[in-house]
Write a structure and sequence with these properties.
Layout lengths: L1 H65 L5 H10 L7 H12 L9 H22 L4 H18 L8 H27 L5 H11 L3 H10 L4 H25 L6 H5 L4 H8 L3 H10 L7 H13 L2 H20 L6 H9 L7 H4 L10
């Protein structure tokens, strides 16, 4: 009897020790997760502060450049089109690359930072012209923004040599050519075509050019310019694929326009026959009711289209990050790496969560 009591007491003590160990492990894990979450939060703030700080310096230069137009009405239209006062990724990409390769006093490259954002603003005008409103004014605005983008590069002449300025102008020209080819391919995409889709995505990517420009202005070796450019191309393609995916949680612009993106092709390939018939009737319909929008979003979630698009986008970002890891470290690299997380998590993806099937 005494032995049994002793064993029982020892067993009770053992259980208490196990419970203490379990509580300690949970406590340690909670601390670790809390620290990890705190680090991510700090990195996110650092990233957006960097974008805001860049825009804060670039915006006044853009406004000053636009003010040179003698037509007051045109000046107002151009100003209304540009994204003043908001965090801007394109100018930050040029700055990040410039600083990654040891460029000093980034404010010297403000004209180049402004140039790529102005160029992108012009592309948005052209995109709206083809997809929404075939207004001649939009085509004219694209031309003006494009001309302004090129003219800004000559403001680099006080700090950079002729060869660097010429290389930057060539990069902008190549960007225009790639975008024009991508637009032509998009017009051909009347049916799902994976090969043509990836050619289009490669042409539309807007990471490669800003990163190459930043490296050129930092006087990086040609092999490093090519390396950061290839890294940017892969990440940029990931961004385009992610953009096509989160469009389901945004305005359904691609679906309304009847564009065969890879996520849309995946949706049609993985939906049941009855739903596919209804989906086909809605595809390319400019105006959709709330019920029709919900039907599309419900099916894109249930067919795994969102997860498919996110994984594909991540695979391209991973290729870009592998190349990026061959270069130096520091803040610039850290923020470039963080920027890729935007392909996996944002408000548009979050809006689709209500369509998920609850776990039992």
């Amino acid at each position: 009897m005494f032995v049994l009591r002793r064993k029982s007491r020892l067993l009770g003590l053992h259980r208490k020790d196990l419970l203490k160990d379990k509580v300690y492990i949970i406590f340690q894990n909670t601390q670790f997760m809390s620290k990890l979450s705190n680090e991510k939060f700090k990195l996110k703030n650092e990233y957006f502060d960097y974008l805001k700080d860049t825009a804060l310096k670039v915006d006044p230069y853009v406004k000053y450049s636009i003010s040179h137009f003698s037509d007051t009405d045109l000046e107002k239209v151009l100003i209304s089109r540009y994204r003043f006062g908001k965090p801007q990724l394109r100018p930050a990409q040029v700055r990040l690359s410039y600083e990654l390769f040891g460029g000093d006093n980034w404010e010297k490259i403000i004209p180049a930072c402004a140039s790529v954002e102005v160029k992108d603003t012009g592309y948005y005008c052209l995109d709206e012209f083809f997809d929404k409103t075939p207004n001649k004014e939009l085509a004219l605005l694209q031309g003006i923004f494009s001309s302004l983008s090129y003219s800004m590069i000559f403001d680099l002449a006080d700090s950079f040599n002729y060869d660097q300025i010429n290389q930057v102008l060539c990069e902008l020209t190549n960007l225009d050519l790639k975008n024009a080819k991508a637009a032509a391919i998009e017009k051909k995409l009347k049916q799902p075509n994976e090969k043509l889709y990836f050619k289009k995505v490669e042409g539309y990517n807007f990471w490669e050019t800003p990163l190459r420009i930043g490296a050129i202005l930092a006087n990086a070796p040609q092999k490093d310019i090519n390396l950061i450019g290839e890294s940017g191309k892969q990440i940029g393609m990931g961004y385009i694929i992610a953009n096509d995916t989160w469009d389901f949680g945004k305005e359904l612009e691609d679906f309304r326009s009847g564009k065969y993106t890879l996520p849309i092709a995946h949706l049609f390939e993985n939906i049941n026959a009855d739903s596919k018939k209804k989906l086909s009737e809605l595809f390319g319909k400019p105006k959709l009711s709330k019920e029709e929008e919900d039907f599309i979003r419900l099916n894109c979630v249930h067919t795994g289209t969102i997860e498919y698009g996110k994984k594909l986008a991540q695979s391209y970002c991973d290729k870009g990050l592998e190349l990026l890891n061959l270069l130096g470290g520091g803040k610039a690299k850290r923020l470039l790496q963080f920027a890729t997380t935007m392909t996996q998590k944002n408000a548009f993806y979050d809006s689709l969560k209500k369509f998920e099937i609850p776990e039992p």
